[in-house]
């Protein structure tokens, strides 16, 4: 337990917690969007299990993240997965607006949270690993502390989404934005991205526009089908 008396340990812990506070915003949005399709009594379970499992996944991912990011097309595939998740979450929102409100399953919500967090955490965990400087105890402890931060953020977002439905659309756009960023960050596009610095922002904006545009078209088609 000598490490508890080390100044470097506590400085590293503060760094990891602060990094997680900064990076947990988009993850809280994903968790809230996935959980809001559940009946009220299951929302807290989805937030808890989704957040906890996502943090454990980040710990495991930290060990191999640097190597994974060297694989061509990995982030392109991951970005496309995020775009698909954005489409699905907007589709769920359309179902929720109907008179006979339907609910999703707890496992489906947790699965959506895990897939989205896995993709969104690929580059984020490198920052956490750098702050930990190889100290596994510091890494695990720092990420464990981040669980209540994500849970609080997700719970707050669910309440805001119920009160301000426009946040659902903005949340889906955020997922699309991160999806576009992820695609543009793939190693195979590195040289092109260096030569064209605007690619990062253009891809992110296109991702957000694609999710919102296709999502609205999807919802319009669903309305037409239900009306006929």
TrEMBL record:
It is found in: Membrane. It is a multi-pass membrane protein. This is TerC family protein. Signal peptide: none annotated. Keywords: Membrane, Transmembrane, Transmembrane helix. InterPro entries: Integral_membrane_TerC, Integral_membrane_YjbE. Belongs to the TerC family. It comes from the Bacteria. The chain crosses the membrane at residues 12-34, 46-66, 72-90, 126-152, 164-180, 200-218. Its main location: membrane. Pfam families: TerC.
């Amino acid at each position: 337990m000598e490490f508890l008396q080390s100044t470097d340990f506590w400085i590293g812990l503060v760094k990891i917690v602060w990094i997680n506070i900064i990076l947990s915003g988009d993850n809280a949005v994903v968790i809230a969007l996935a959980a809001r399709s559940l009946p009220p009594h299951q929302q807290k379970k989805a937030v808890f299990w989704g957040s906890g499992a996502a943090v454990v996944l980040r710990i495991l991912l930290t060990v191999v993240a640097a190597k994974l990011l060297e694989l061509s097309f990995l982030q392109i595939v991951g970005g496309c997965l995020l775009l698909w998740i954005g489409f699905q979450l907007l589709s769920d929102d359309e179902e929720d607006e109907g008179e006979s409100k339907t609910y999703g399953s707890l496992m489906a919500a947790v699965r959506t949270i895990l897939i989205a967090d896995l993709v969104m955490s690929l580059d984020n965990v490198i920052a956490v690993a750098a702050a930990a400087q190889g100290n596994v105890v510091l890494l695990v402890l720092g990420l464990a502390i981040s669980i209540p931060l994500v849970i609080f953020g997700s719970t707050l977002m669910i309440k805001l989404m119920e009160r301000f439905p426009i946040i659902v659309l903005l949340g889906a756009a955020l997922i699309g934005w991160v999806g576009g960023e992820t695609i543009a960050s793939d190693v195979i596009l590195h040289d092109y991205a260096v030569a064209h610095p605007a690619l990062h922002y253009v891809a992110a904006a296109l991702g957000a526009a694609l999710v919102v545009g296709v999502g609205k078209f999807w919802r319009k088609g669903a309305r037409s089908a239900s009306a006929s």
